[in-house]
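re: that complex we talked abt at group meeting.

here r the seqs, copy pasted straight from the sheet so there may be weird spacing, ignore it
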Amino acid sequence: MYTLFLCWRYLRTRWIALASVVSVMLGVATMIVVNGVMEGFTREMQGRIHGILSDVVFEANNLEGFPDAAGHMRRIEELAGPYIAGMTPTVALPGQLAIEVDGEWQTRHVSFIGVDTTTYGEVSDFNRYLRHPQSRKHLDFTLHEGGYDLVEGEPDALKNSGWPHRRQKAAAGARRSAVAKPFAVANDEQPLPDEVVVRDGYRYRRVREAPQPAPGVAAMRNPFEPLNIAPQFDPSKDTRTGVVLGLGLARVTSADGKKFLVLPGDDVKVTVPTATVPPKPSSDTFTVVDLYESGMSEYDANFIFMPLAKLQEMRGMIDRQSGIANVTAIQIKLHNDEDGEHVRNLLREAFPGGYYSVHTWRDKQGPLLAAVGMQTAILNILLGMIILVAGFGIFASFCMIVAEKRRDIGILKSLGASSAGVMSIFLSYGLSLGLVGAGAGMLIGLLFIANIQSIADLIARLTGQEVFDPTIYYFQEIPTVVEPLTVMVIVTVAIAIAVKASVIPALMASFLKPVEALRNE
Amino acid sequence: MSDMRPLVEPRRRGGAGPGTSGNTGLPHLVPAPVGKRDDSAHIAAVRLTKSYRKAGLEIPVLRGVDLEVRRGEFLSIIGQSGSGKSTLLHLLGLLDAPDSGEVQLGGQRIDNLPMRNRDWIRNQELGMIFQFYHLLPELTALENVLSPLLISEGIFSYFRNRRRHVQRATELLEQVGLGHRLKHRPSEMSGGEMQRAAIARALAARPQVLLADEPTGNLDSETGREILRILRTLNDQQDVTIIMVTHDRAIAAEADRTVRLARGSMEVA
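got the structure back, here u go
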């Protein structure tokens, strides 16, 4: 009983000893904050990397891809069926995108991803990043009647983009052309027959056999008048094939705020190389139907999504005789993401390495994730050392306390206290200090994490230096994740160090002979 | 101070009262009959020797000390500084182990008992008073008096008996005239008050032997006499065996019997 009582009393009356646990407290707090931020960062990054990539990507090394996606998917299903939740074929292709900014065409180097609208949403989280609520439910590459979600700081223009924007723009264009060109001639706004998208909810229609004029009539047709063969394309009522652009392309952030270069409803021009050798450019006009933001700038500024069949067709990947189209990759979603490496290895064994390569999404961004993991490990080692140093601080101050308490130890022993009892006073004292230090550290750390954004803002305001620049990291806020297990391990280790640091002083105290402790006053 | 109430209630002998050694598995160390001034030796030293090693030299302090103290006797040991009287008291109080010889309590050798049992005897059978009071500075007077009781009790039994213990400690402090100082720390008390609190602490576990090491050595003569009167009353009224070490003949004269320790052995004063 007296051990606890005295321990409690020492704790309450000897504040100087508490000073020695301040370092434990700070160490624990820093460790919790660092782990929280690093974990948050990692999770956020992983979420974003994973967001667009499926769990496992099975792709051809050749840009031509491989034919018969269905056959490949059957084979994959045979090999790793039990793990697989869904698959979807995709085509990835580098190309050029031209967007009209302030009446001028700007060209960008981008990658086009052709996706299967029915299955892609089941395999990847891509739909989650779209701006229109309906697209998020199901992406069908059709233009919406306004209602796009805004992110803070964005101009309202996005909200009412889509059809209203398109109609407005078409009206303005019609007025302009009416003024400038009273005699309308063929221009880009006149579609080729097979490009027309009719606004009937159907996502797009490839009208391969456009209404043909009677033979003979065609031969005599005026070459300058192919305009009325297809149904009349009216930009205020019809759209081209839909594409989804990343925000990295569509939006610019400057000192004045965020500004959209392209809005849903605008038309853009796409050029991809054909599959012939040597490749020739194949161009077409598309309508932007939605925007996405995965948060990975590498993706958002580079990837443009469009319907699979359209890209295959532009590229010329469809075999003329069989009608079988090539794909460049099959995206595989697993029931359990943990099985990724196993599935990858299964597929790598079965498919020849020269033609195919198989990656998990982690492999794709391996270096980035490894770097984050490495930083976390190094920081933990350093901070663990801080706590260790704090342990030596406790050790030193405990030795001082035992030396100072020599006489009291003698008194206790003369009153009948056992050596074990005296030892446990100091051990439980060490434990209590550890508990106080680690507990306070935990509290501070968790509070810090909870208010990390306001703290960062405060520091930014005081120093004029942005602590966490969202434009660099692509995060609106500092991401944090508090992993209860991590916190528990940190706190336990800190307490253990405090107890261990008090073992030797406690032993010194217990070995003290009462007569020596009481002699020489 | 003849009107002083008894500090220690007459011990219920033979019964399993609180604080007896009945629940420790120890033999009954104090099986003595009731009554003052019986002739059996209560605590005894038999040919005790003790020497200290200093800078490689063996310095003998006690060279075969024989001492018998009867139950209920008030003995004072005088001797010059360095004569070994404190060492003798420490050996009797089991704070140190003799090089040879025996310490007996109630006719039984106690200096070679296992550590646990010696701790128990120190706690239950012996009360110690020091020249420098040796109160624990972090504790109040009341808590200091409670400390022997705290040491003997586990957590749960302490809380079960807490009220009784606090009542006893309060009574003891009231009896030494410190009823108004219960919540005071040693640093807020005078020397005499501290020594009185130390006496109350020594009596808390109802020991039958009180070992006092220069109890007045640090007090002015008036306060010292007051402390002596308390000891005297204890001895008179509750037949507590007292061994007091002092270097002052006048103080020693208060005791029933005085022995002199000189050059490591006993002489009759």
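couple things i noticed - Strands of chain B lie at 41-54, 57-70, 74-78, 100-105, 108-109, 126-129, 209-213, 241-246, 257-262, 265-268. Chain B touches chain A through 34 residues (CB under 8 Å).
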